[in-house]
Amino acid sequence: MTLGKLIEKIVEQKGQQYDTGILTDWVNEIEGQAVEEVINQADGNNIAFVPYDYTQDVERTLRIPDRFQDVYLNYLYAKIDFGNQETERYNNDVAMYNASYEAYAAWFRREHRPKKRAMFSKF
């Protein structure tokens, strides 16, 4: 999915309550988290996350595969509902986001070999 398609879906479902720049900043939050916590933990990955700029990156493909697009959708829903002080919706969105993020992370870890870590030995 591209950045533009994601934001288009959000606007269709939640309306144009927030500027595309703010929505892009929120996408950057989750992309940065996924790169640091999941993707860069795999052997051979050392990606330097470069934040998206909506005006330049509208056609740029997001890192999390389409089958896990709920990660983005639920995160953005949560941010919007939090900003709108819709507490019950926010709580539901966060629970759905956590479940979808964990499903993505588990899938990624199954599909990629982890980096070797320093080993400690007993003397």
Features:
123 residues, mainly alpha, 5 helices
Provide structural commentary.
The mean pLDDT is 91. Helix 1 (3-14) crosses helix 4 (70-83), helix 2 crosses helix 4 (70-83) and helix 4 (70-83) runs antiparallel to helix 5. The chain has one domain (3-111). The longest helix has 25 residues, at 87-111. The protein is an all-alpha fold. The chain is globular and about 55 Å long. The protein is built from 5 helices and no strands.
Annotation, overall tally of beta strands? 0
Strand content: under 5%
Kindly state the percentage of residues in helix: 55-70%
Q: Radius of gyration from the CA trace?
A: 16 Å
What is the overall number of helices? 5
Largest sheet: none
Order of helices and strands: HHHHH
Global structural class:
mainly alpha
The total tally of domains equals: 1
Uncertain regions spanning at least 5 consecutive residues: none
Shape summary: globular
Distance between the amino and carboxyl termini: 51 Å
Q: Averaging pLDDT over every residue, what do you get?
A: 91
